Structure formats: structure tokens, C-alpha cells
């Protein structure tokens, strides 16, 4: 390993002096704005890659050096830099003489080789995808076992004509799978070189071809859509007959307890009846054996940024409704339409209209405005399209907020959001916010100075100041009283703050211990990275203690009767289950949490007449678990069945499509005799 590190460091130090013509340059585009770059400079068998993204005041940056062997596989790979939230990256790989060695945030690793191997990085830039693709193009069946484990596959798609400053090109789509939960869409030129890595929301594309961004993202959305259409055809069960779910106990949020065993009948989209457990079936019914398990109404994930890749996984977690808190408006509209028409599986969606002020640190969802009049126009645009609320972001001019709130309320929309830079939670509640978003945004005003800029990572790194905060101080109590007197709600997103303050290199994240071993190896390696840099003296202890202070604050808010919403901002699904668990530390009981995640949230969203509980006439939105979640909340992690609008899904059929090992078995289903 000493030789590996020495060579990698030498390569890194020499990279700055390399002067080579014809580097490969790429632009990173998000929200129709260039937010980063990648420049790969070759010098013989060594390539250096300069990669940087800055969107919403944050993003990863790295310098890589790769030495390629004569077989086209990397023999040395060094990556230095920082992750999106600032933690340091130091990754090295070396192979020679029948042995491979590597070091990343999970620690050291090695393997004996009978032939050179393909290494998959933990913190590589998108350039790595091109390296993998070139190796796979030469492999039998375009499949290769890889280091440190698993296998990669490449599937060829159609040819696409593109135009730009470099002239017309024909590129070919390839789907790269095996790294994470969802495959990547790559475009390679006729030499097998990377032209673009593209998704529905963002793209890395060869410099000079940025004009193709909108078209290629649209194509990526269509490719992803087709994948999920195909999955839906295989895993969505539309029985076309009444379905009797026998021997289940219903979680009743009105009593916060499970009922005695009953049978629940579903017909079409709705709950047709709740009958005695031994009621006889009628002719033509489908029967599902609930085996004495608990049936819980579909839960509400109240802080999502929904994408196609997460829609079905959220559903498999028992989340039948999500509140989207900011998105590409066109992308979200298309996604909602696909879900509601039954093309793909996913939850119901409550839409928030995202409005951001223009600055060098702007987020690029929704509307980015540079005047109060344009902000009002954005509110009216959202109101005309039925959005439920407006969300305000960090670069907004705080002086415009009262007018935004007034227009939103006039149109029947609520207002939530971050605290704009150089303001505080008190001012936003006074301006008319109905709900505060993120516990850090709520608390920062107590520990930062008025001129400190929260449009950058500072709004996260400043959390290390929290341990010295006196929660009994007048300043803190004044803010909390404003919440109480104004009947304000808060969406704390505890889980993302746990990850931010508690995740450390080489350690299984505390929030992922119950599902870590079920996930693909690429996901596991990615998760074992710290989010923030804790290398300075005292920072590790300060960040850890900051989360305790956050929990204490949420406990006070709960005790004072403030309405707390459960949302993740981390994609939901498994992290939503962890989100619910964390509120037990803030003093909430398992039955309270289940009630808040179901009927209370449905009432908050004005949907309790059709959702939020399992009752005759309501939508058939619920999930089945074998245990008793009122006694052990972890029972919600072993879901056997999910029903959304009368469509039945079994996670055991879905999870393998994402490389996830199922957690339990599906119930026994008996179809009617024809």
C-alpha cells in the first residue's frame, strides 16, 4: 500500500505541470444553467481530470489522475478533493503483479488477481463512467466483475445525431448498470469516448454541445420512463375483481391502536368494506392472507424532490403520498401525469411552487427571480396550476417576502421555506410564513451574525456552533413563542441533519444500520462517507453534540404543541423510516408518530376525507407489515404489501430490480377459480 500511495501522490503532484493539447472539456448543466465543468487532460498513459460543480452554493470538486495499462484498464487511480457538503476525499487504487490495493473512506482493501481488474471508484467524477464503458465494450456480453465487488453491465441503445461547435456527431446511447440503485444513461462517440452523461434533470455534456441539453434531457426522461413502464407491467397487480385481505389488524389513528383482526375489502380504487375476520367471501373475489399482520394507512413524506427513480421506492416504503418541495416544474408535471395515468408506479404528489432569488448562489429549481414583481408573477403562475403552497429559498430578498405571502394567501396557497440570507426565522414568521422548512434554518438565527451569508455551505457548517446554545435564553424562547402563537408548523428533516452531523468515513451511517446489508455495494460504499469536514480540532465533537441540541429543540417544539411534519429531503423510502424513528428521541411515541404520518398529515394537506386512515369509502392506500408498529416502530421496515389506489404491489418483486435484497416475504394470494 505504501508503494500505491507514493505513486498516486507523485501522479497528483505532477498533474499541475502537465501541458497537453486537446483536453476533453465538458459542461455540467442543471436547471438550464451551467453549474460546473469537467476537463480531462491526457499525457501519454496518464489523464488528469479537473471536476467541479457549484449549484445552490455547494457541490463536489476533485482532481483525479488515472494511469491506464496496455489493456485499457486503470493501473493507478488517485482522487483528491471534497464532497458536496465539504468532507475531504482521498482515494487511491493500484494494481500490479496479480494484486490490487485500494484506499477510500471505507478503509483499505485488497484482492489477488488472476488478470487485471476494473476498479469502480467511490468518489470518482463522471469521467469514470466513460472509463467503465470503454472496458465493458471489450468484455464478453459487455459484463464484467469489478473491484471491490459486484459486476457492471453495459447495454447498447440507439444512435443519436447531435450538433454543436465541434460539428455534427453521431453518438450512441448506452445504459450502465450495477453501481447503484438505478442505471446511468451515457452517450459515447464513435471512438467509444464519453460524450455525455444525462438524466431527466441534469447533464454533463461535451463543451460546445450545450445547445443539445434540453433535447437530450428529454430523451433521458423518456428512457427512464420506459424502464419504469416495463417494471410497472411486471409488478403492479390490478386484479380486476374485489380483493379480500383476511386476518389483519388495522391501525386506527383515532385511537392510536390496532383493531381486532378483521377482513378489509378493496374494490376498484376504494375500500369497499371492513368486515368480521370470518365473513365468507363472495364469488369471484381475490383473497390475500394477512396472517395477523398490521394494516397501516399510506404515509405522507412531506419533504420530497421527487424523481422517476425514487417514485416506486417511496411507494414500496409505504409512502403513498409525497409533498414535492421544489423541482423542475416541467419534469414534475410529466412525472405526476405518468403516475396518475398508471404508466409508472409512484405516490400521490402534493406540489410546492419553488421561488428563488437570483444570486451567484441560486438554486435552479422552479423560478429564479430578480424583482418582487417577477416573484409575484411566479406565485400567480403556480396558483393558476393548482399548486398547494409556495416555497421560498435562501437567495430570496427578504423584503419581498410579505408581498409573496400576501399574493399566495389571496390565491389560497400556504407559504413555507428556508430563511432568506441575512434574515431570521422570526422575521419570516412575522412576514407570514405558515411553515418553517428544516430545523437548521429555524435555529441558525440564534447562533450566527446578521451579516453572515447562509446562501453557501455555511448554513450547514454553522451547526457546530449549536452545542453552546442555551435553549432557555430569551432569544430562543421568543422564536418558539412566535411558532406557538402563530400556529406555525415546522418540517425539521431530522434525518438529513443526522447524516450531516453523525456520518463518518468508514462507518455504517447510524440511520442505515437496519438496511445497509440489503443495498448494492456501490450504494454501501457511497454511504460510508462523511458529509462535512470534521478534521479541525473540536469539530467532530461539536457536530455530534449539535444533533443532540437539534433533538432537544424539536422536543421543546413538540411539547409546546407545534405541529411537526415528517419529511426527509434525502429521497425518502428507507430514509423516511429513519426519519420517523428519530422523533422517538424527541419524545413522540410510536402510535403518535404513526398517527402524524397518516391521518394528521392528511388533515394538514386537506385530504383526510379520502386518505389518511383505513375506512370504508376512502382510497385503498395502505401497507401490510407482519409485526406491531405501535409497539416497535421498526416493524414498518418489513413491508409485505403496498396498495395505492387499489393497485397491489409486493416489495419482494420490486426490490431486486434495484439491486436490493428483500426484507421479508409476500403474502399468499389466492385468485378466484374461473
Question: What do these coordinates show?
Answer:
Helix content is 28%, strand content 29%. The chain has 674 residues and is an alpha/beta fold. Among the domains are: 2-234, no CATH class; 427-565, no CATH class. The strands form 3 sheets. Strands 8-7-6-5-4-3-2-1-15-14-13-12-11-10-9 form a 15-stranded mixed sheet, with helices on both faces. Strands 16, 17, 18, 19, 20, 21, 31, 32, 33 and 34 form a 10-stranded mixed sheet that branches. Helix 6 (372-384) runs parallel beside helix 7 (401-410), helix 8 packs parallel to helix 11 (474-485) and helix 12 packs antiparallel against helix 14 (539-559). It is globular. Mean pLDDT is 94; it is low at 1-21.
Amino acid at each position: 500500500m505504501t508503494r500505491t500511495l507514493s505513486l498516486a501522490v507523485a501522479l497528483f503532484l505532477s498533474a499541475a505541470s502537465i501541458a497537453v493539447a486537446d483536453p476533453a472539456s465538458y459542461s455540467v448543466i442543471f436547471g438550464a444553467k451551467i453549474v460546473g465543468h469537467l476537463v480531462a487532460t491526457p499525457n501519454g498513459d496518464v489523464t488528469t481530470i479537473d471536476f467541479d460543480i457549484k449549484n445552490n452554493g455547494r457541490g463536489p470538486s476533485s482532481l483525479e489522475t488515472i494511469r491506464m495499462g496496455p489493456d485499457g484498464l486503470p493501473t493507478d487511480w488517485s482522487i483528491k478533493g471534497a464532497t458536496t457538503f465539504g468532507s475531504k476525499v482521498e482515494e487511491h487504487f493500484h494494481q500490479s503483479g496479480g494484486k490490487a490495493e485500494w484506499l477510500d473512506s471505507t478503509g483499505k482493501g485488497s484482492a489477488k488477481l488472476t488478470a487485471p481488474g476494473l476498479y469502480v471508484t467511490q468518489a470518482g467524477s463522471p469521467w469514470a463512467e466513460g472509463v467503465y464503458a470503454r472496458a465493458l465494450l471489450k468484455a464478453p456480453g459487455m459484463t464484467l466483475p469489478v473491484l471491490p465487488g459486484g459486476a457492471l453491465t453495459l447495454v447498447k441503445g440507439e444512435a443519436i445525431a447531435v450538433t454543436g461547435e465541434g460539428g455534427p456527431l453521431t453518438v450512441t446511447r448506452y445504459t450502465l448498470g450495477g453501481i447503484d440503485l438505478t442505471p446511468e444513461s451515457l452517450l459515447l462517440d464513435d471512438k467509444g469516448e464519453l460524450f455525455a452523461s444525462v438524466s431527466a434533470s441534469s447533464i454533463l455534456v461535451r463543451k460546445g454541445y450545450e445547445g443539445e441539453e434540453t433535447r437530450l434531457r428529454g430523451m433521458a426522461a423518456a428512457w427512464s420512463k420506459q424502464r419504469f413502464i416495463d417494471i410497472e407491467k411486471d409488478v403492479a397487480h390490478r386484479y380486476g375483481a374485489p380483493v379480500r385481505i383476511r386476518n389483519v389488524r388495522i391501525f386506527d389513528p383515532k385511537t392510536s391502536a390496532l383493531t381486532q383482526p378483521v377482513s378489509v375489502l378493496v374494490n376498484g380504487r376504494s375500500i369497499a368494506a371492513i368486515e368480521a375476520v370470518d365473513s365468507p367471501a363472495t364469488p369471484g373475489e381475490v383473497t390475500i392472507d394477512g396472517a395477523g399482520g398490521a394494516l397501516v394507512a399510506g404515509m405522507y413524506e412531506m419533504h420530497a424532490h421527487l424523481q422517476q427513480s425514487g417514485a416506486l421506492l417511496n411507494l414500496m416504503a409505504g409512502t403513498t403520498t409525497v409533498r414535492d418541495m421544489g423541482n423542475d416544474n416541467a419534469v414534475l408535471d410529466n412525472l405526476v401525469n405518468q403516475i396518475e395515468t398508471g404508466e409508472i408506479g409512484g405516490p400521490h404528489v402534493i406540489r410546492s411552487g419553488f421561488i428563488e432569488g437570483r444570486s451567484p448562489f441560486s438554486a435552479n429549481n422552479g423560478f429564479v427571480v430578480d424583482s418582487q414583481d417577477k416573484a409575484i408573477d411566479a406565485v400567480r403562475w403556480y396558483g393558476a396550476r393548482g399548486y398547494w403552497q409556495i416555497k421560498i429559498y435562501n437567495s430570496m430578498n427578504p423584503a419581498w417576502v410579505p408581498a409573496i405571502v400576501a399574493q399566495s394567501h389571496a390565491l389560497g396557497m400556504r407559504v413555507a421555506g428556508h430563511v432568506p440570507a441575512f434574515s431570521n426565522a422570526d422575521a419570516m414568521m412575522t412576514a407570514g410564513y405558515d411553515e418553517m422548512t428544516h430545523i437548521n434554518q429555524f435555529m441558525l438565527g440564534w447562533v450566527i451574525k446578521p451579516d453572515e451569508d447562509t446562501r453557501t455551505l455555511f448554513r450547514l457548517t454553522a451547526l457546530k456552533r449549536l452545542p453552546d446554545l442555551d435553549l432557555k435564553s430569551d432569544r430562543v424562547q421568543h422564536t418558539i413563542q412566535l411558532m406557538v402563537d402563530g400556529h406555525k408548523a415546522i418540517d425539521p428533516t431530522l434525518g438529513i441533519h443526522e447524516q450531516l452531523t453523525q456520518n463518518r468515513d468508514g462507518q455504517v451511517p447510524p440511520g442505515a444500520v437496519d438496511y445497509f446489508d440489503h443495498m448494492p455495494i456501490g450504494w454501501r460504499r457511497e454511504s460510508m462517507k462523511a458529509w462535512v469536514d470534521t478534521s479541525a480540532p473540536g469539530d467532530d465533537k461539536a457536530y455530534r453534540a449539535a444533533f443532540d441540541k437539534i433533538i432537544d429543540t424539536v422536543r421543546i417544539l413538540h411539547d409546546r404543541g407545534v405541529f411537526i411534519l415528517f419529511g426527509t429531503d434525502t429521497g425518502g423510502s428507507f430514509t423516511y423510516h429513519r426519519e420517523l424513528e428519530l422523533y422517538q428521541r424527541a419524545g413522540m411515541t410510536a402510535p403518535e408518530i404513526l398517527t402524524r404520518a397518516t391521518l394528521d398529515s392528511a388533515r394538514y394537506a386537506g385530504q383526510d376525507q379520502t386518505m389518511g386512515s383505513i375506512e370504508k369509502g376512502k382510497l385503498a392506500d395502505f401497507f401490510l407489515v407482519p409485526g406491531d408498529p405501535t409497539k416497535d416502530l421498526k416493524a414498518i421496515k418489513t413491508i409485505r404489501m403496498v396498495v395505492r389506489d387499489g393497485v397491489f404491489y409486493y416489495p419482494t418483486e420490486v426490490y431486486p430490480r434495484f439491486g436490493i435484497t428483500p426484507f421479508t416475504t409476500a403474502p399468499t394470494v389466492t385468485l378466484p377459480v374461473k
